[in-house]
Write a structure and sequence with these properties.
Layout: E1 10-11, H1 13-22, E2 26-31, E3 37-42, E4 45-47, E5 50-55, H2 60-65, E6 69-82, E7 87-101, H3 105-119, H4 124-134, E8 139-153
Antiparallel strand pairs: 1-8, 2-3, 2-6, 4-5, 5-8, 6-7, 7-8
Helix pairs in contact: 3-4
């Protein structure tokens, strides 16, 4: 793991997991098919050390991930500039791990159901119907986390 310079801002694994469960989006960073840095903002679902997200069955994300690749995933859970302190209050998480295309149909469906529960919980029935229609042409990806770290800064405001 990359050591955190400001250890006083470091947060626990439990703290990180709570932010991973609740944050509205994150950024997946990989190398594209031409070995260029490629950051992809995306909606996701987190459960038990895995991040799930979906997309089309073709495109740069699919080409870059292929059978599997190392990746990082980051999110900013909260951020507020504190102008008079020349600083900001924030909560952020960064993860490292292996990302791949999900092949198991049962886990693929569970991941999509998790996305529905996170983003459209008031429309669960409609969401399940949508999954039934879209499952065959939707790619689902899973990132298995190997390292996770969280950071928080809380400046006093005037």
């Amino acid at each position: 793991m990359i050591p955190m310079r400001r250890k006083d801002k470091s947060q626990s694994q439990e703290w990180c997991q709570e932010r991973l469960k609740k944050a509205p989006y994150g950024v997946l960073s990989i190398l594209d098919s031409q070995a260029r840095p490629y950051g992809i903002p995306l909606n996701y679902y987190y459960q038990e050390g895995k991040i799930y997200f979906h997309g089309a069955q073709e495109g740069e994300k699919v080409r870059a991930i292929g059978a599997g690749t190392q990746a990082s995933f980051s999110l900013v859970y909260r951020q507020e500039v504190v102008p008079d302190k020349f600083s900001s209050n924030y909560e952020s998480v960064i993860c490292f791990g292996q990302v791949k295309i999900l092949e198991d149909p049962r886990e693929k469906r569970q991941a999509l159901e998790g996305l529905i529960k996170k983003y459209s919980k008031d429309y669960e029935k409609e969401g399940l119907d949508y999954i039934d229609r879209a499952l065959a042409h939707t790619q689902v990806f899973v990132m298995t986390l190997e390292e996770t770290s969280g950071k928080k800064n809380q400046e006093e405001t005037s």
